[in-house]
Design a protein that fits this description.
The chain is mainly α. The chain is built from 17 helices and seven strands.
């Protein structure tokens, strides 16, 4: 503690009133990732066989070239071709809409302390439920998912916009449309049988789960393997900030000033707290709304009320989950709808959301699509609702202070995790094309 305290004082003399610095991340903070399970999950993550039309893998929207996101404010799933900012609508199968929310980064999803996932927290740990999780499936949620990241991993395969495909165009999409998700003949079962029919996968599952060798491959097995891969591939605890926490290794001068502001007068550490730099809570930060919004197919609005869609509580309107921050300078565009392609612009909005929302000018990265992306921001009533919900007290930061905070955020970069450990495979057992 003496070494760490001395290092803090050496790095930043204004930490007297700062929020508490977190302990360093250690191996004990992450789930176990057996090698056979990781290598199986590696191939499944990159295999388009999990999508309804066998054309999209998890890696299509979570690619290491774009810091495990897709480099877009709002992505194109089914009906899109190409990767990252170059992705475009397929003129022969045009997407019905953009994916409603920004593709989140995958760093540190193997942390044991995670309790909620997705921007609205619709996947939550809940020991009182038979499955161990509260999810949109409710009582239908199957048991057998090993951890929270496994429970969330496979919901994209049920989304028509992301991986399932447009209604009626394949067996998975038809099952989802009919509400058949779990059980025999459900969407998860259809995908599982596709995987089980491939001899190489069959052998790898038997090796990864010897207690189940020869038995049917369940969807939870697929999800557990992918979760193990993501936890191992993108663990991020080797940034300069992590070294500072572990042994007092000094940060660069500007980053040290930024750390003092982050955990001090700027108040960032109030919400970006703990080892993961997230309180895992939900806050209304006045983020600009764009795209199709989060709505059921029978709804016609383009609004996204965030956490309120999960809880039904008015006080949760426009609140979104505090994101973890490792590699944050690489994971743009930023915001739950990716409203900012420039991190400094995002931060200037973030420290004074009411003023930022009033002055917002579009800064999104969006592939061409014949849709109206800005209807919410053109609705004075909705903008007023978003503004009224803001929970942030404004903080006045000058240019020098903003530069220092940006330098600190850059010190959260872990180059090893950005590169990944196994990388993109040369091929997958299905023989389908791999997004490289």
């Amino acid at each position: 503690m003496r070494i760490l305290f001395a290092a803090i004082l050496a790095c930043a003399s204004v930490l007297a009133n700062a929020a508490e610095l977190p302990p360093p991340l250690t191996d004990a903070d992450f789930i176990e990732t057996p090698e056979a399970e990781v290598r199986l999950g590696h191939l499944l993550f990159w295999d388009p066989i999990l999508s309804g039309n066998r054309n999209i893998s998890c890696g299509s929207c979570h690619h290491p070239r774009f810091a495990t996101g897709d480099g877009l404010s709002l992505g194109l799933g089914e009906g899109g071709v190409g990767l990252g900012p170059e992705r475009r609508a397929d003129p022969t199968n045009v997407p019905e809409q953009r994916i409603p929310r920004n593709s989140p980064a995958l760093f540190n999803l193997g942390a044991r302390s995670l309790t909620t996932l997705f921007h609205d927290g619709r996947i939550e740990a809940d020991a009182a439920r038979p499955s161990g999780f509260r999810t949109p499936l409710g009582a239908e949620m199957e048991a057998g998912f090993a951890n929270l990241v496994s429970a969330q991993t496979m919901f994209p395969v049920l989304s028509a916009d992301e991986m399932a495909g447009h209604y009626q165009e394949n067996d998975v999409a038809k099952a989802v449309r009919q509400g058949r998700i779990t059980g025999s003949g459900g969407a998860w079962d259809i995908i599982s049988k596709r995987v089980e029919a491939i001899q190489e996968y069959r052998a790898m599952f038997d090796a990864a789960y010897p207690d189940k060798a020869g038995g049917p491959i369940h969807f939870t097995d697929i999800s557990n393997a992918i979760a193990a891969f993501m936890a191992a591939e993108w663990r991020a605890n080797q940034s300069p900030f992590d070294s500072f926490l572990r042994d007092g290794t000094a940060l660069p001068a500007q980053a040290a000033k930024g750390l003092a502001l982050f955990y001090g007068p700027a108040g960032c550490g109030d919400c970006h707290s703990g080892r993961l730099l997230s309180d895992q809570q939900f806050h209304a930060m006045g983020q600009p709304q764009l795209g199709p919004g989060k709505a059921a197919r029978f709804e016609s609005h383009k609004n996204d009320t965030g956490r309120m869609r999960v809880t039904g509580r008015v006080e949760d309107a426009y609140a979104f989950r505090t994101p973890m921050l490792r590699n944050v300078t690489r994971t743009g565009p930023w915001g739950h709808a990716g409203a900012f392609s420039d991190l400094e612009r995002f931060l200037r909005h973030h420290v004074d959301p009411v003023a930022g929302l009033a002055a917002y000018e579009p800064d999104a990265t969006l592939p061409p699509l014949e849709v109206d992306d800005w209807s919410v921001l053109q609705d004075a009533t909705l903008v007023a609702d978003i503004t009224k919900a803001v929970s942030r007290t404004p903080v006045d930061l000058g240019d020098a202070e903003m530069t220092a905070i940006l330098a600190f955020l850059d010190a959260l970069t872990d180059e090893t995790s950005l590169a990944g450990r196994l990388g993109v495979p040369a091929a997958v057992p299905s023989g389908l094309s791999v997004d490289r």
